[in-house]
What we know:
The complex is a heterodimer.
Chain A: E1 4-7, E2 10-13, E3 19-25, E4 31-37, E5 44-51, E6 54-57, E7 64-70, E8 73-78, E9 87-94, E10 101-103, E11 107-111
Parallel strand pairs in A: 2-11
Antiparallel strand pairs in A: 1-3, 3-8, 4-5, 4-9, 5-6, 7-8, 9-10, 9-11
Chain B: E1 3-5, E2 9-13, E3 18-25, E4 32-37, E5 44-49, E6 53-57, E7 60-65, E8 70-75, E9 84-92, E10 97-98, E11 104-109
Parallel strand pairs in B: 2-11
Antiparallel strand pairs in B: 1-3, 3-8, 4-5, 4-9, 6-7, 7-8, 9-10, 9-11
Amino acid sequence: DAGITQSPRHKVTETGTPVTLRCHQTENHRYMYWYRQDPGHGLRLIHYSYGVKDTDKGEVSDGYSVSRSKTEDFLLTLESATSSQTSVYFCAISDVGRNTIYFGEGSWLTVV
Amino acid sequence: GQNIDQPTEMTATEGAIVQINCTYQTSGFNGLFWYQQHAGEAPTFLSYNVLDGLEEKGRFSSFLSRSKGYSYLLLKELQMKDSASYLCAPKGGSQGNLIFGKGTKLSVKP
């Protein structure tokens, strides 16, 4: 198994509060990604990182920010959580060639 | 634009063979991934095709035709544990990231 740890694994939060999800890898891979998965949709890319302090937006980035201050950690922040952000969030990592992309176990977020 | 099409659901019998098709349209195509995802779990990598043709890996094989924008995943000797969703994901677009289809939910029955 790829060394990817997501935390927290489950969280319930209130509308309007900030939330941070953490992805930690032990593989020293360059690329890290945050996806969300919702019924009726495929996995959708929120943000990704191609190196320390190098990040870019994905398909559904509104309402989310990310930071990568060191290779092993990629943080996803919901600045002011809304009910539409209730979802399962997956972190993923890949090496430079991006020929294999591994997923973390997921973080279940409920915004009430 | 980018579009991925795969059947929503399929049912097959234990021991049989099933083929899951995927058609895609994406700019800057650079390979296609297949993932397996059991309910409540993370996607797990099955295959990655860059060139046209068939790649075989045990009971699972994956085929790619770049000119037709078409791929399939072939599962042989189906087992109950193969009941899962199968995700087709071409790599492309301006950023070279994966673009996921909605997945095909496969149910294997005794």
